[in-house]
């Protein structure tokens, strides 16, 4: 059988290859027209007539399929586009790629194989480690350090000022807000991925730090002096206020928020749209507003759903009690 290319289960034609990774997609499996699938080695497939390519790491195997058909976003080829602006004292490693309209300030250092897509702006003394890739429109402020093999998606801003203002009082109360200077920096360690339009503020005096292997989704905001542990996972629209610490391999689900000067322990998990106002122990599951242990949140939610029933019972009891007194 000749394979035309990769496709999603429901979009695939008979000459496409698709991916089936979990029984939760059994409905899509039953409907797909694909005749070839990449599947995990131990996953049972309840359908006949399919050619199955089994792999210990099925996700990586399908990634290789995408690479073979040239379906992954391409990196710029090595070379410096003539429209790029390069400051003084810039150091470029071997095989760097600098796209159209990029701006590199004085003292920028790029490691071996760094790829800058069009429109990237690196201010003075920014360092980017070997093999990292910055997509179009990424901006890194003065002195930011980006580690090796990082991927930073379009529009991310690294090292903008933290949100700090001191009130100036007058006869009518606050007359104005005086900006608090932020003289620190941002350090992004190796193997970090940062999503599109994410913003990471520089520290007040020291560094905001993103630990090795951490993954930040699109539209995440990391406040000044925040410390993100290794392999932490921050999903879309997470917001972390200044000086909080996120532990190693902690997971913050979409739209969750962490208040200032808090600590989320190693391996803790914060549920979607939760608001955290207290420290979270290592390994704990927290949910809700205000966020509390998941088991407690679920019990409370179950009770809230019964409030209507309980109220009706109370009304009936009060009515019966009133008749007895009469």
Give me the CATH fold name of the largest domain. Answer: UDP N-Acetylglucosamine Acyltransferase, domain 1
Query: Roughly how much helix do the residues carry, as a percent range?
Result: 10-25%
CATH homologous superfamily identity of the largest domain: Hexapeptide repeat proteins
Rg, please? 26 Å
Structural class: alpha/beta
Low-confidence stretches: none
Q: How many individual domains?
A: 3
Query: Biggest sheet: strands side by side, in what order?
Result: 5-8-11-14-17-22-25-28-31-34-36-37
Q: Biggest β-sheet, characterized? A: 12 strands, mixed
Number of distinct helices: 4
How much of the sequence is in beta strands?
A: 25-35%
What is the top-level CATH class of the largest domain?
A: Mainly Beta
Rounded average pLDDT: 94
Explained architecture:
It is a single chain. The chain is of the alpha/beta class and 326 residues long. The protein folds into three domains: 5-68, 3-Layer(aba) Sandwich (Udp-n-acetylmuramoylalanyl-d-glutamate--2,6- Diaminopimelate Ligase, Chain: A, domain 1), CATH 3.40.1390; 80-294, Hexapeptide repeat proteins (UDP N-Acetylglucosamine Acyltransferase, domain 1); 295-325. It is built from four helices and 37 strands. The strands form five sheets. The protein has a twelve-stranded mixed beta sheet. The longest helix is centred in the C-terminal third of the chain and has 19 residues, at 307-325. The relative contact order is 0.06.
């Amino acid at each position: 059988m000749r394979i035309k290319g990769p496709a999603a289960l429901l979009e695939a034609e008979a000459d496409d290859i698709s991916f089936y990774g979990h029984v939760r997609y059994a409905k899509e499996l039953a409907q797909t027209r694909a005749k070839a699938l990449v599947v995990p080695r131990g996953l049972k497939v309840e359908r006949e007539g399919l050619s199955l390519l089994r792999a210990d790491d099925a996700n990586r195997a399908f990634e290789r399929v995408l690479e073979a058909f040239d379906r992954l976003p391409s990196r710029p080829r090595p070379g410096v586009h003539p429209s790029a602006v390069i400051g003084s004292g810039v150091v470029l490693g071997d095989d760097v790629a600098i796209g159209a309209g990029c701006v590199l300030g004085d003292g920028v250092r790029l490691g071996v194989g760094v790829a800058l897509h069009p429109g990237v702006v690196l201010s003075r003394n920014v360092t980017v480690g070997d093999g990292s890739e910055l997509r179009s429109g990424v901006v890194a402020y003065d002195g930011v350090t980006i580690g090796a093999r990082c991927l930073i998606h379009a529009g991310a801003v690294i090292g903008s000022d933290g949100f700090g203002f001191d009130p100036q009082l007058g006869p009518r109360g606050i007359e104005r807000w005086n900006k608090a200077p932020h003289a620190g920096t941002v350090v992004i360690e190796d193997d970090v991925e940062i999503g599109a339009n994410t913003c990471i503020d520089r520290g007040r005096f020291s560094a905001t730090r993103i630990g090795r292997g951490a993954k930040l989704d699109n539209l995440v905001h990391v406040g000044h002096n925040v410390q993100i542990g290794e392999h932490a996972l921050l999903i879309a629209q997470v917001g972390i206020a200044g000086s909080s610490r996120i532990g190693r391999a902690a997971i913050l689900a979409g739209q969750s928020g962490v208040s200032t000067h808090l600590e989320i322990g190693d391996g803790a998990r914060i549920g979607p749209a939760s608001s955290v106002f207290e420290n979270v122990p290592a390994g704990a599951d927290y949910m809700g507003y205000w966020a509390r242990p998941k088991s407690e949140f679920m019990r409370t939610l179950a009770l809230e759903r019964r409030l209507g029933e309980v109220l009706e019972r109370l009304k009936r009891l009060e009515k019966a009690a009133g008749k007895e007194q009469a």
